[in-house]
Amino acid sequence: MKTLEANFDGLVGPTHNYAGLALGNVASARNAAQPSNPREAVLQGLAKMKALHDLGLPQGILPPQERPHLPTLRALGFHGSDADVLRQAQRQAPGLLAAACSASSMWTANAATVSPSVDCADARVHFTPANLCTHLHRALETQQTTAALKRVFPDPRHFVHHAPLPATPALGDEGAANHTRLCADYGSPGVELFVYGRGNDDEPSPKAYPARQTRAACEALARLHRLDRQRTVLAQQNPQAIDLGVFHNDVIAVGNRNLLLCHHAAFGDRTGTLARLRQALTASELQLLELDDDEVTVAEAVESYLFNSQLVCPPALNGRMLLVAAGECRERPRVWNAIQRLLAADNPLAEVRVFDLRQSMRNGGGPACLRLRVVLTEPERRAVNPACWLDHARYLELVNWAQRHYRDRLLAQDLNDPQLLDDSRRALDRLTQILGLGNLYDFQHG
Ligand code: SUG
Q1: How far, in Å, from the CA of 25 to the mean position of ligand 1?
Q2: How many angstroms separate the alpha carbon of residue 156 from the centre of ligand 1?
Q3: Which of 317, 338, 345, 356 has the fewest C-beta atoms under 10 angstroms from its C-beta?
């Protein structure tokens, strides 16, 4: 039976803006208060989805969230009409308003941790939404993410939806961005690698920036998903890399099948981590493509998001791999040279395709941040909400929809505009029809 890996990309929402909300994320801090272009952002994401679909890869879509989220602002004490709530929030607590307006759910690598059915003891696909508890704007995503995933993957015979872990720093969980699966083939049992920044008391911690994921959270995820302990590897991220802006492991490492592309400085205990991966991966040999500082420094990796490329296997490449990279990689000669060297060497990498994802990149989100990987058998694929798959017609419909509903410029001072609230609700209401999601959003319940 054919088992495929699907990418579910997050559609960028109509309030995409640069508010400098993410501590430890260099791009978010650098671009704070710059004007954003939500329409360009959603179209850039859609172009990547369409290109992968055209290569014969299953491409899914996850909806953006309701933003501005008025229920959050009301729960924090702002009251009156919707316009009153927005006005008060802007005046009294602009940071709270920015959090309630963030389009950060676009980075669906942080939506959840997903384990394929072949790895789980009950032979179902397991989802645990990330609690994202390190940052307020991200923690606000969890509830809607949980609801959305249940509507996209509805059938309990195939899909198990866990509650997010308790949202407390000791159990910080950032989802698939810190989770990599290595395997011989998507359909064969894989090794699930969970990477954390904050471990036991005797493990070092970053000094400048928060470690968003904890070891305790990784252990809980492995238990919930009923993974085989022999094929589960926990590893600490290098705390020095976190302090250089590697806030998620997917900024410094990416895996596909038996290949791991990473920086030499990715892991705290490099030798031990690689040894454990090699031991756990019994059905095939680990193919390690590692770059060190001489070729690409950690700072260059953070600027270019080289390791946040997607590694995919389009059917035409017969098992070899395509690197889906951000345009920022081509703009940096050392990074581009490293890619060319890898392509010329003897390894499964066959091609590179570059995408302009600048709107997302300016908030620290590259190609791999924008997608949640879900490995599906054929019956599981058929059990997915059919309207959430991208095809040519749906792509055209979504481009049309974005052009009709999205602004091409947004600044922090626009976030309290009641017209933005109305426009966003109208856009999302229409989107729930396009994606067959029913009344997903709070505003649709009146
Ligand atoms: O959590 N940026 C996101 C970027 C997430 C990237 N995801 C992965 N690496 N998988 C974050 O830091 C910036 C929002 C702002 O500043 O307006 C932000 O949240």
Answers
A1: 7
A2: 31
A3: 345
- Report the chain's mean pLDDT, rounded to a whole number: 98
Distance from residue 378's CA to the centre of ligand 1 (Å): 33
pLDDT score at 376: 98
Choose the residue to mutate in 304, 359, 369, 414 for probing ligand 1, maximizing ligand atoms within 8 Å of C-beta: 369
Ligand 1 centroid to Cα of residue 342, in Å, is 28
- Ligand 1 pocket residue status of 22, Cβ below 6 Å: yes
What is the third-level CATH fold of 3-67+102-445? L-arginine/glycine Amidinotransferase; Chain A (3.75.10)
Q: What is the atom index within ligand 1 of the atom nearest the CA of 28?
A: 16
Identify which of 8, 248, 302, 373 to mutate to test ligand 1's pocket (most ligand atoms within 8 A of the CB): 248
For the Cβ of 25 lying below 6 angstroms from any atom of ligand 1, the answer is yes
User: What are the tens digits of pLDDT across the range 396-426?
Assistant: 999 999 999 999 999 999 999 999 999 999 9
Rounded distance from Cα 23 to ligand 1 centre (Å): 9
Q: Each residue of 19-49: pLDDT tens digit?
A: 999 999 999 999 999 999 999 999 999 999 9
Evaluate if residue 221 carries a pLDDT over 90: yes
What residues act catalytically? Answer: 174, 248, 369
pTM to 2 decimals?
Answer: 0.98
- Would the CB of 363 count as within 6 Å of ligand 1? yes
Q: Is the CB of 19 under 6 A from ligand 1?
A: yes
Question: Of 9, 16, 26, 28, which is best to mutate to test ligand 1, by the most ligand atoms within 8 angstroms of its C-beta?
Answer: 28
Give the residue-averaged pLDDT of 142-160: 98
Task: Point out the ligand 1 atom lying closest to the alpha carbon of residue 102.
Answer: 17
> What is the pLDDT confidence band of residue 446, given thresholds at 50, 70 and 90?
confident
The 3 state secondary structure assigned to the chain is: CCEEEEEEEECCCCCCCCCCCCCCCHHHHHCCCCCECHHHHHHHHHHHHHHHHHCCCCEEEECCCCCCCHHHHHHCCCCCCHHHHHHHHHHHCHHHHHHHHCCHHHCHHHCEEEECHHHECCCCEEEEECCCCCCHHHHCCHHHHHHHHHHHCCCCCCEEECCCCCCCHHHCCCHHHHEEEECCCCCCCCEEEEEECECCCCCCCCCCCCCCCEHHHHHHHHHHCCECHHHEEEEEECHHHHHCCCCCHHHCEEEECCEEEEECCCECCHHHHHHHHHHHCCCCCCEEEEECCCCCCHHHHHHHCHHHCEEECCHHHCCCEEEEEEHHHHCCHHHHHHHHHHHHCCCCEEEEEEECCHHHHCCCCCCCCCEEEEEEEHHHHHCCCHHHECCHHHHHHHHHHHHHHCCCCECHHHCCCHHHHHHHHHHHHHHHHHCCCCCCCHHHHC
Structural domain boundaries in the chain: 3-67+102-445
